[in-house]
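Folds abound. A case:
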Amino acid sequence: MTDFQQAQARIMEAVRPRSFPLAVSFLAQNESFPEKTRRPGTHLKKRVAICQAITMARIYGWTVGVARDDVVCVPAMIAWGWSGAEDGASELQGLFATVGFAKDEETAADQVAAMGLPAAGEVAGILLSPLAKAQREPHAVVIYCNPAQAMRLVQALTSRTGGVVGGAFGGKVECVQTLYAAHRLDEPRVSIPGMGDRIFSMTQDDELAVALPARLLPDLLQGLDEAGRRIGARYPVTFYQNFEPLYPEPYGEIADRLGLFD
């Protein structure tokens, strides 16, 4: 198994995200959370949004597990197949049309079809922890970051895998895209956290998320060492300083009068 403590340390050193990279695992039916997993419904006596659980893991450093009984976010419960609805996609498209995220049911249906939702019963629970605390081989690794940090992560990944990193940007119920898409598609993904992330879990305006299937973690780490090394590519991006600045004319007049640059 990968040395996840070392992997987290390398990511933190190379990219400097403001929160911990996450190990994400999906539990099957009748599969239990590991010991010492914090369940919001049990430990906090509250139901939460999935994005809140993400924040607890990436900011607090907790190992957090969420299943149906822990969650209060209606769209997320439908999207993850936890609502008990006979046709979850229809329920979600109806919601999108009702609240104005889609101009009509047909448009909403197209939106839902593009989301790549897990099938009902496919995911019984979501286990989240800082990468360094991973107790098992995760399905995905997720890094919340700013666009410049995302640039560096994408450079690292594509230097090893080729191609480009894709994403699907719907702006709503983004926990599915952030946590699940990289695992489902078995490829890296960029996502833009939605309103729930920003309202309930304090995700900042400059944050987005880069996710990758855990099998690509060694490629990411090697890419962080190698991608663009010959031209000094790194984060923070180094500002070019090898130039002589020009100042406004009054400064030049004073310099001439005082003979500063003679």
